[in-house]
Amino acid sequence: MTVTVDTAKLPVLLNELRLPTFARLWPEFAERADKESWPAARFLAALAELELAERAQRRIERHLAEARLPAGKTLDGFDFTAVPMVSKAQIQAMAAGDAWLNQGKNLLLFGPPGVGKSHLAAALSRAMVENGYRVLFTRTTDLVQRLQTARQELGLAAAIDKLDRFHLLVLDDLSYVRKTQAETSVLFELIAARYERRSLMITANQPFGEWDSVFPDKAMTVAAIDRLVHHATIVEMNVESYRRRSAIDRTSAEPEEA
Ligand code: ADP
Ligand code: MG
Q: pLDDT tens digit string along 64-85?
């Protein structure tokens, strides 16, 4: 095979091949390779490795953007001493491991407002994205709204299927679903569709006993809870609001007026 080599075409070729890192770095690497007499294979391998590393990084950045996580909530920024009933080791094991997502297991976080449910959910979600998983963080009422619209357009099954691309779906504030929203039962269909396949993370102010307003009737509530808890870690965060507590700390830390 005869190959005509035209290095001037390299930028176009690399762009066609979708190798942006090659395209950016080859002139610099070529110069070094020439100067230091690298074998051609080393030059090629160095660029290929960097291309792959940057590709992985770009993928994670895309997945972080699509996850719509609340900003600035990390596990490092979470004070576990504020919620002694939450095992730091267990959360860290979930953040580091992938077995629970591969098995479609769920995480349910319960507790009154301000105790850090959303923070913990977002922080753990971020860790999973960084491990290469795809996550979508939603307010439950927003997601139910979207699915109801899909149902009206006869596209509910397709909409639920589309959510399958997310290994983890976070339903923040499940207990805020209103009775009128509950009546369409889209939430139940979502839970049933993901059961034992794709993970859900749920935060709620109300424990199960008060979920009657989230689903159309008692039987469906029981059926939904049954599926959610079958393979789930349940974390109850029954402490005083972190928000309120830190407000009180700030007040008491202020110097007394003379
Ligand atoms: P919830 O979802 O339970 O209502 P949030 O997660 O929104 O509570 O927490 C309220 C605020 O307090 C947020 O700004 C959150 O970052 C912060 N917060 C709550 N718990 C903790 C904690 N244990 N460590 C650090 N910040 C916390
Ligand atoms: Mg919250």
A: 999 999 999 999 999 999 999 9
Residues having CB within 6 Å of any atom of ligand 1: 73, 77-79, 82-83, 111, 113-119, 203, 242-243
What is the sign of the dihedral through the CA atoms of 39, 40, 46 and 49? negative
Distances (CA, A) of 216 to 74, 124, 145, 179, 180: 35, 31, 15, 7, 9
| 117-122: average pLDDT | 98
| Rounded-to-integer distance, Cα 157 and Cα 186, Å | 10
d(CA 25, CA 14): 11
Q: What is the pTM of this model?
A: 0.87
Tell me which amino acid residue 100 is.
W
Alpha-carbon distance of 163 to 135, in angstroms, equals: 10
The 3-state DSSP class for residue 199 equals: strand
| Residues whose CB is less than 8 angstroms from the CB of residue 177 and which lie 6 or more positions away in sequence, other chains included | 140, 141, 144, 187, 213, 214
Cα(254) to ligand 1 centroid in Å equals 22
Question: Which bound ligand lies closest to the C-alpha atom of 109?
Answer: 1
Nearest CA owner, ligand 1 atom 18? 116
